[in-house]
Amino acid sequence: MIDKLVGKIRKLNAPIVVGLDPNLAFIPEHIKQKAFVEYGETLEGAGEAVWQFNKAIIDAIYDLIPAVKPQIAMYEQFGLPGLVAFDKTVNYCREKDLVIIGDIKRGDIGSTSEAYARGHLGPVKVGSKELFAFNEDFVTLNPYMGSDSVMPFINTAKPVKKGAFILVKTSNPSSGEFQDRIIDGRPLFEWVAEKVNAWGEDYVGECGYSFIGAVVGATYPEQAKVARKLMPKAYILVPGYGAQGATAADLLPNFDENGLGAIVNSSRGIIAAYKQEQYASYGAEHFADASRAAVIAMQKDIASALANR
User: Cα(19)–Cα(275) distance, rounded to whole angstroms?
Assistant: First the structure.
């Protein structure tokens, strides 16, 4: 799956993953009202609104991007109807040939970790059959319970050529409370980066990159320089661009000399673009067109930064 991801990034010249993180506040009133007329102001109504919102955005951008990253918490908040919307979204993205990164940030151990892995990467055995549940291509993982929390996912991923992005240096302001603490003379995130490199060193695609990648926030470009050196074969998922304040120039340490090695996430900057001043002319009725315009602008911004570094 890493070869498919890198291949699509090359073809589209778009190292971009769109975070499908729907919040009811992002969804235009006409979408919500149509759902509420059919299902009422219920969890089912919320789930339907989320699904229709996602579908419209996917239809508008799928030809421009290689991957999407649905954040499962934004669906779980609506209970089972929200998870139905998550499942519909994943399946629809697969129909559009998008690579799907399930942003689940799991970090448990033992049989619990194995169950999470089967549920999201699959397969799970049911009687005589092996079935896929949510069936994402990659997942995000929190490694802070150690190898016991990560290896069940890697062991599940390998037979089906799937992968994971493991948190190393996250983009949030308080990440340094733990990740920058000095352990035996070095920040903790460096030890994690070395472990990620070790976990993925024997699971490498034809593209030269591992199926086991890392999450490194664009808001910490100096730490990204270090992480890139420690994980030469890890594809890096980069949050923090746009709404969190990082610029295209801040992204550069995550890329290799060929402009590969990283894929940059934007969530509300794309899916709620119509609420931004520069895209306000599209209006709520044409929210998906605003999302498309925002993707094109992001692609040009990153391409310019890479060309001029």
Answer: 16
What stretches in the chain show pLDDT beneath 50? Answer: none
How many CB atoms lie under 10 A from the CB of residue 308?
9
**Structural domain that includes position 283:** 2-303
Q: Is residue 308 one of the residues assigned to a domain? A: no
User: Is residue 229 within 8 Å of residue 252, measured between CB atoms?
Assistant: no
Active site residues: 105
Each residue's pLDDT tens digit, 155-211 = 999 999 999 999 999 999 999 999 999 999 999 999 999 999 999 999 999 999 999
Alpha helices in the chain (DSSP H): 2-12, 29-39, 43-61, 73-76, 79-95, 110-120, 147-157, 176-179, 188-200, 221-230, 248-251, 268-271, 287-307
Are 289 and 3 contacting, i.e. CB atoms less than 8 angstroms apart? no
Q: What is the pLDDT of residues 241-251, one digit of tens each?
A: 977 778 999 99
Q: How many domains does the chain have?
A: 1
| 37-41-43 Cα angle (round to 5) | 115
DSSP-derived letter for residue 261 is S
